[in-house]
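[job 4471] stage=fold_predict status=RUNNING
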Amino acid sequence: MSRMTLTQLRKLKTTGEKITCLTAYDASFAQMIDQAGIDILLVGDSLGMVIQGHDSTLPVTVDDMVYHCQQVHRGSQRALLIVDMPFMSYATPDAALETAARLMREGQAQVVKLEGGAWLVETVQMLTERGIPVCAHLGLTPQSVHQIGGYRVQGRSETEAQRLRDDALALQAAGASLLVLECMPGDLAADISSWLEIPVIGIGAGAACDGQVLVLYDMLGITPGKRPSFSKDFLQETGTIPAAIEAFINAVKKGTFPGPEHTFNEK
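[job 4471] inference complete, writing structure tokens
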């Protein structure tokens, strides 16, 4: 069985079919999610919080990401496999190249994901010119949580919104193949999604994005502490983990998730 490709994801954007994505950190969950028909598996550095018990993603290492990506790769067959590049592992273009090479060679990832705006243009160009597909990430960027003042909605002021629009266009021009938008007003995310040719995956960014991603533990209601307001506990509705995963996929494909209650406004 062949894996989903970036070409297929671009076709989904063109036809208007929503793209589905969940995080995964081990072979067992990866197999279950993959068999349900998910489009993308994201090995997220969120594992620092939901697996390792840290209060942020910052302590996660490249070795951690390689290890968990290997497990997810072994447990899956059809979903596109994206892996996060952890904090400070892509501070320079050369460091990014070294990290990405490990994640693809050892971890078997198909795409690497990094957080940040226009300052990453040179890095994205370097990676893509060397055959490494990149997923960019704008809005709430958890690796910058201390700099941005906590886990808060981004892009509510016109200055912030314009910066995010400019960053999105710059990253696409640099060669990014995908873009994740996190925790921003739905109208702003809708604008960015409509302007870009590459698929845009939202998390707390409204229903108009080309697809949706959630942290697996959030959508199963088992994340320690408070669940994000933009998430939904699908396990509570369905009663079993396989049914919850299928319900998430169906809700995204049908456009019923996220709803207005999971979407931030501009003010």
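[job 4471] summary: The chain has one domain: 6-262.
[job 4471] exit 0
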